Amino acid sequence: MDGDIRAQLNAVYRPLHDEATAALRIIRGMGYTARLTYCNLHETMVDGAYQTEYFPLPEIEIEGAALCADFGIALDKTAWLEFTLTRERALALDYEHVAAAFEFEAYGAENYLTDLYRKGMRAAELRGAMEKTNEREFHLLFSLARAEEQAIEGLFTRLSEEGILQKIV
Questions:
Q1: First CA to last CA distance, the chain
Q2: What is d(CA 24, CA 80) in angstroms, rounded to the nearest whole number?
Q3: How far apart are the C-alpha atoms of 19 and 98, rounded to whole Å?
Q4: Are 43 and 51 in contact (CB under 8 A)?
Q5: Tens of pLDDT, residues 35-71
Q6: Which of 25, 79, 96, 107 would staple 144 via disulfide (CB 3.0–4.6 Å)?
Q7: Is residue 168 in a domain?
Q8: Model-level pTM?
Q9: CATH number at residue 71
């Protein structure tokens, strides 16, 4: 590998890794069992179309937050918390209330490129859109401007208080 490319990659990934290890400490400090991984093949909306990101990004796998939960950090250092809910649990949420409190996206666990809800769509129509699918599970993704301690703890606390995020032991 060319040394220049290695230096460029380290310049990108070192700050991301530092952010991820700090977020890992915060999440573990809230009582969750978690581990840092790196995952690629994320699908990101760019100029109105999904593009595959072939490069790995840091993700923290969180046990006991939902069926499956990941906290990730993007190249621009924005962060996301994505978790999976059963169909029954997802259909029970009040999405107008959720949309008023949080910036979030919703999509199926299997057909994840179909946006059931994202900013600019009507939250009141989300339950109906979910009911029309054959999905057994749904992903909810909540965004943060930065992976800072106060923001992470605040998001987890608010999601727990709203009954959206349930600690499973």
A1: 45
A2: 13
A3: 27
A4: yes
A5: 999 999 888 878 888 888 899 999 999 987 666 889 9
A6: 79
A7: no
A8: 0.87
A9: 3.30.930.10
- DSSP for 94-129, please give it: -HHHHHHH--EEEEESSSTTSEEE-TTS-GGGHHHH
The total domain count for the chain is 1
What residue type is 9 in one-letter code?
L
Q: Is residue 166 part of a domain?
A: no
Residue the block writes with tokens 């909306």: 45
Residue with tokens 């530092």: 18
Structural domain that includes position 42: 3-161
Scored b (16 or more CB within 10 A) or e, 52-67 reads: eeeeebbbbbbeebbe
Residue 59, φ and ψ in degrees, nearest 5: -135, 140
Q: Are 73 and 144 in contact (CB under 8 A)?
A: no
pLDDT digits (tens, 9 = 90+) for 130-150: 999 999 999 999 999 999 999
